[in-house]
Each structure stands twice: as structure tokens, then as C-alpha cells.
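Researcher: I'd like a structural prediction for the single chain below. Treat it as a standalone chain; there are no partners to consider.
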Amino acid sequence: MVRTILVVCLGNRCRSPMAAVLLQRALPDCRVISAGLAPPVGASADPHVIRLLKPEGMDLGGHRARAVDADLMTQADLVLVMDNEQGDELAEQYPEARHRIFRLCEHEHTDIPDPFGGSHTMFVIVLGLIRQGVDSWSAQIQADIQRSTLAIGYGEAS
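Model: Treating it as a single chain, here is the predicted structure.
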């Protein structure tokens, strides 16, 4: 069962922080963390990201970029990346985690482009893609949790 989700992008300033906060909202019983493959460690979330999510009550003002490491990979039951290249890189660095690495938009069969340095419109488009991935994964994880709960309940009753 998925209890800890690691969301990874390149810089941990745009896509993974947005996905992490949306996943955390959708899956309050899960622990959701984000990291980057090559982040400017300690940098804040991109201002576009902060502005986009603030009206929804999500504050990324305190976010600080961090690098993915072996400890984070070990803790994660599920690792979500933004594109196939990132998945390949993580699978090469952490082959024991290969079976837990998927794209955020895996079910939509698409990568999520990096909006860093792009226009506000690009950030809006990327956020829309992230929402699709979050909706898809959170529905699947909720269904898995429900099935597990039902199985435990049934097992206890017999």
C-alpha cells in the first residue's frame, strides 16, 4: 500500500512542488515529499507557482528545493517523475527502486514539460497536466486503500 510518495522533477522549484501539494491535499493520509535531480538546493518555489496555487489556499512560500537521495528513494512507496528521461535517470541511479518509478501522467501517456523560465500561460498549462496526473494517481491510490481496508475488515469478520 502506498503511504509515502516522492515527486521528482529537475529543479524542485516548479513541477514537483505543485504536484506534491496537490497530492497531499488529495491524499491526506499519505506522506508526500518532493525533490529534484539537479536542484538549486535551498531555492524557493518559482514565483509563478506560488501565485498560481495561493488562491486555492496552498502556500508554497516556505518551500525550499532539495536533491533526491538514497534515503528519500528508500522511504518512498511510489516515485512520480515528470518525464521518461527522469524515470530512466532515477532507475539507473537507484535500480532497486525501478519498480516504484512512474511518470505523474503515466495513465495519460504523456510527459509534463518544464515551465521554468516560461510564460504564465506555460505554467497554467503545466498545472493542468499536473492536475490530471494527480487526479489519476489519487483515484488509484484511494481505490487501493479502500480495497485494502475492505480486505482487512472482511478478514477480521471471518
